[in-house]
Amino acid sequence: MNHQKFAEEWIRAWNSHDLENILSHYAEDVAVTTPMITLATGGKESTLKGKEAVCEYWRKALDRFPDLHFELIRSTMGVNSVALFYRSIMDKHAVEVMFFDDEGKINKMHAHYD
Question: How far apart are CA 42 and CA 44, in angstroms?
Answer without folding.
Answer: 6
